[in-house]
Amino acid sequence: MGVIVAMHAPDGFLDPSVAVVTAILSLAILGDCLSKCSGELQDHQIPLAGVSAAFIFSAQMFNFPVAAGTTGHLLGGALAAVLLGPYLGSLVVAIVVVVQAFLFADGGISALGYNLLNMAIVPAFGGWAMFVLARKVLPANRSGVVVAAGLASAASVVAASVAFSIEWLFGASAPVPFDTVFSAMVGVHALIGIGEGVVSAMVVAGVLASRPDLVAGASDLELSQLENPAPIGLRAFVLGGVLLAAVLGAVVSQFAFDDPDGLERVAIDNGFMDSAANHWFGGSLFADYATRGIGNERLSLAVAGLAGAALALVVAYGMFAAARWPRLQRGSV
Amino acid sequence: MSGHHGALTRGASIHGLYQPGHSRVHLLNPTAKMLGLVVFVTLVAVTPRTAVAALSANAVVVALVMVVSKLPARMVLGRLAAVVPFVAFGLLLPFIGTGTRVHVGAISLSVDGLWASWNIVAKAVIGAGAAIAVTSTTAITDLLSGLERLKVPAVLVAIAAFMVRYVDLVVGELARMRIAMVSRGHDPRWLWQIRPIAASLASVFVRTYERGERIHLAMLSRGYDGSLPVTRDVEPLRTSELCVGLLPAAIAFAGLAIVLWP
Q1: A232 to each of A133, A221, B3, B94, B163, how far by Cα in Å?
Q2: 188-217 in B: which are within 8 Å (CB) of A?
Q3: What is the ipTM of this complex?
Q4: What does the pLDDT look like over B97-145, one tens digit per residue?
Q5: Cβ separation of A61 and B89 shorter than 8 Å?
Q6: Cys-Cys with B117: which of A10, B19, B62, B93 at CB 3.0–4.6 Å?
Q7: Domains, chain A, ranges and CATH?
């Protein structure tokens, strides 16, 4: 899966200068997180943070189906932020990333700077920002929290892929242009984000059903507001859908716009254009693209719009189902 | 990641990583080993890709450490699988890379892409190999105390220690739930069939958190005052041990110095 390109990058995958800068940045941010939650960490939070790290680690090993037998797994950065708060959440995921690098050789030790940034800090804080934003528009009840958690998790994966692309812009270790990497990474991760969003929303719904006090992102709500299994309101559904469509639309249209450029550039640079492979591209797609640029742009816009709407529908359905999910009996599966 | 069972039922265990032994590498001070690992891997990462001889020498150093440690080749190769996706990406680069191209038979390859491919594959394998060599020859508790001696904040090491202690339990719990679901005919193939899996994740999170609460209460009743007692005596780091631990890093540094010397 393309997801692994952004995650758990090995030693020497990006330029040493990027490794140094991201390492300093990650250490500074995690140090700040540590001082922010040192008060609670002094006492009972250490065992709890430890077992939460064990949970995130295990969740990353737990495959779920995506389509037709292919599987993916949870990344968990935004989920950790929603369950534990952004500071403790990013610390816990950072510990998971460090343990994976040292014990499992999963991700390089000299690559920890950008791996921590992409897998722990950006998903936790980006996801938390999205969560807070979505909570403002969504109603203050269980459904609002669940949908916001789903949106945040979906956005966090895309944000991580954007972060990786920007790092690639400054420290590419291979002659692959930024816009190719950007469109491929962000495009793939927009799809991966759907799975992440749906699973995270359902996990938050399940935790809210049995132990609502364990969800840091819902700590501002009264228990009565959370226990009320009110079906998701029309307003929440429409607002959530519009918000999601806007986010996904922006991403997908970016993907659709950039892709021909990136592909075309690669094709020209690679000499496809004047090689025997000319028939393959030249006959229709790029010839049309060159001569009828505007028409094609509209076409790609339409395709992007359709794809965006379809994606939004799938995610909206998943979250709708998650939000209406009846109360989970604790311990039963 | 094929099939529905994934890593969970393959018996992946964090405590199975350590391969007990009595080699010189096993007996070396854990702090020296970890410091040596971090410095070595950093030097490998900054070695220019054109320094083929230096990178090859580093690979030989890692292989030698593995031979001295008597690590089973099967285990090493199995654990190196973690870098396979990046090796695959690296091998793709000569085809999609830009810039000057060379022709090998009918295939046109990017010169920069070939160098990038070598760079990624070599450094990923050397870096992962070095980490495998150290974690296979050092007990996890020693690794954690090594992290603490390398000035990682004690709170973070304590959290990592709890994580390491309980991760097999949580993984086992998820695996048992998965087996129970499969035995009841659970066979999801599409994302919208995901609800039972998310349910088990939510349930395991609540159980795990409540376990953490119980652990904390048990610790309090045994006199926990906020700091973890040292469970093993950490041997002081002797200069001779430090020198042995830094030996691979010294070789990597020598290679780098020869390359960069004008």
Answers
A1: 18, 16, 35, 51, 37
A2: 188-213, 215-216
A3: 0.88
A4: 777 788 877 788 888 888 989 998 999 999 999 999 999 999 888 888 8
A5: no
A6: B93
A7: 16-332 (1.10.1760.20)
